[in-house]
Backbone:
């Protein structure tokens, strides 16, 4: 998914570790591919992808929970609450 994001912080020790503001959300993430230099305060168009080191744990929420994104500790892990969407992964289904 493509978003406009403002760079809030670039980690001085691990420069691929960036903190972004997307809308009203602050997201700490890993900038895997960046073909040009980025600066704190700059606004850039980004492609945001989810990456799982382990199988995701999906729990069905019965009530009408708000969509939210909560950071787990100080790492890159987040708990996401929202609507489950099935995504087509085979080319013939993407037409």
Residues:
């Amino acid at each position: 998914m493509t978003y406009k994001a403002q760079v809030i912080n670039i980690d001085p020790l691990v420069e691929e570790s960036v903190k972004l503001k997307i809308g009203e959300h602050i997201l700490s993430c890993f900038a895997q591919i960046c073909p040009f230099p980025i600066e704190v305060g700059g606004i850039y168009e980004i492609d945001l992808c989810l990456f799982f080191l382990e199988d995701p744990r999906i729990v069905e929420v019965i009530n009408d929970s708000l969509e939210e994104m909560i950071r787990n500790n100080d790492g890159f892990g987040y708990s996401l609450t929202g609507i489950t969407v099935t995504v087509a992964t085979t080319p013939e289904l993407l037409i």
About this structure: Residues 17 and 86 are 29 Å apart (CA to CA). The domain at 2-93 is CATH 2.30.30 (SH3 type barrels.). The two ends are 17 Å apart (CA to CA). The longest strand covers residues 2-10.
